[in-house]
Amino acid sequence: MFTGIVEELGEVVGVTPTAEDSTLVAVRGPLVTSDARHGDSIAVNGVCLTVVDVDGGVFTADVMGETLRRSALGTLRTGDRVNLERAAALGSRLGGHLVQGHVDGVGELLSREPAQRWETVRFRLPTALSRYVVEKGSITVDGVSLTVAEVAADWFAVGLIPTTLSATTLGTRSVGDPVNLEIDVLAKYVERLLGGPAVDGAEVPA
User: Fold this and answer.
1) What pTM did the predictor assign?
2) Which residues are 22's β-sheet partners?
3) Fold of 8-86
4) What gap in Å lies between CA 200 and CA 2, rounded to an integer?
5) pLDDT tens per residue, range 89-114
6) How many CB atoms lie within 10 A of CB 11?
7) Engineered SS bond to 202: which of 21, 90, 103, 191, CB 3.0-4.6 Å?
C-alpha cells in the first residue's frame, strides 16, 4: 500500500526484455534503495513492483507481460525519469490517499494551462473509469495523489502546485504522453457492495 506522495525522482538505467513477455527494469533511486531489500515493494510511476536486487543505489524489478499491457511501463526507456515511492509503513502519516499500486487504466495528457504559480493539466480518462472519478475526489496519476478539479465523460483536470511540478515527472510531461491511472479503491468497494461490476485493474504482485 502507498500514499501517492512521491519520495524521489528516479532514473531508468536499464530495460532488458526477458523470456515469457516480461522485462527486467533497473532504476536508480538512492533514497528508496537506502533501506530496500529483496522482496520489498516500490511504486514506479504508480505501479507496485517487487525488488529483485539492490546494488549501489540501483534496484531491479521484473515487469510481467500483463503489467506491460495494462500500464505505461512498456514505454519506459533508459534515461527516463520516474516517480518512486516506498510502501507505506504502519503508523506513518497518510499524506495523500490509499493507493494500491494497481493500475486501472492508461490516460493521456491532453493539455497544460500555466498560471502564475500552478498549472491546470487535463488528462484523457478511459470511459470505463469515468463513473469512479468525482470532482474533489482523489485519483492517482503516475503514482501522484491528486485532487480532481473538474471531470467530464472522457477527461478530468487537476491543479498542479509548484512542489508537484518540480518533484514529480508531471512537471515535464508533454501533450500526448501516456500516464498510469489508479482510481480511489473506495469507489470500487462501494460499487461491489452495491452489486455492480468492479473495474479490472492491472494487479501487480507486491
Assistant:
1) 0.88
2) 18
3) Elongation Factor Tu (Ef-tu); domain 3 (2.40.30)
4) 19
5) 776 767 668 888 899 999 999 999 99
6) 16
7) 103
